[in-house]
């Protein structure tokens, strides 16, 4: 969308999370996915975050001019336990994307990603517990292990939330409030910023200088948030006052 001056409301350098309540590569999405690719192609100055549980469907869903991937698209696969990691991460590494990551959320068991982190393809690992009624527990030991693996390979790691049920040192904690979950995740100190992740964003005039990309700003409250590292920053809506 554009504002009354004809400028895009989403600014250069912002990140858009696509279809987070579903799956961008669902078969049911085949009829309209091409329209979405057209938007991503047009907005090559914006980062699009894709998340899927279906990496096996990705090759047949890519646009004809994809080649080795677009610089403004990053693809993550979900790996909530070791079995899913072994199914999905090898497929992710075979796909022609310039930016790749793994989302261990909801984290339902220990996950060892070490053998896939060493070649540098995976730029980031996100982690969080399960939410809402009937949430299964997330264990602090699983999160700590993932954090340690990422540090060893200089891969960015972000612990975004504990989930509703969190186990630490044999004690079970219940956090119904997602903000509290995020704060507790940030306080853990498990998050880690690894080697820089660089997106070559451009518009019709060519590559965009760093100074022209949106500058992220954070309110005081944001300093406590577990998702700060992957956030676009404060929109200054005033709601947190």
Give a verbal description of the structure.
It is a single chain. The longest helix has 13 residues. The chain is built from 6 helices and 11 strands. A hairpin with a 2-residue loop joins strand 10 and strand 11. With 241 residues, it is an alpha/beta fold. The radius of gyration is 18 Å and the shape is globular.
Index terms:
241 residues; alpha/beta; three-stranded mixed beta sheet; 11 strands; globular
What is the topology?
Blueprint: E1 15-18, H1 30-42, E2 47-52, H2 58-61, E3 73-78, H3 82-94, E4 99-104, H4 114-117, E5 122-128, E6 138-139, H5 140-152, E7 156-161, E8 165-168, E9 171-174, H6 178-187, E10 202-203, E11 206-207
Parallel strand pairs: 1-2, 2-3, 3-4, 4-5, 5-7, 6-8
Antiparallel strand pairs: 8-9, 10-11
Could you give a quick summary of the protein structure above?
The chain is of the alpha/beta class. The strands form three sheets. Strands 1-2-3-4-5-7 form a six-stranded parallel sheet. A three-stranded mixed sheet has the order 6-8-9. Strands 10-11 form a two-stranded antiparallel ribbon.
Helix content: 10-25%
Largest sheet, spatial ordering of strands:
1-2-3-4-5-7
Q: Which structural category do the helix and sheet elements fall into?
A: alpha/beta
Largest sheet: 6 strands, parallel
For the terminal residues, how far apart are their CA atoms?
27 Å
Count all strands and give the number.
11
Q: What do the pLDDT scores average to? A: 93
Radius of gyration: 18 Å
Oligomer: single chain
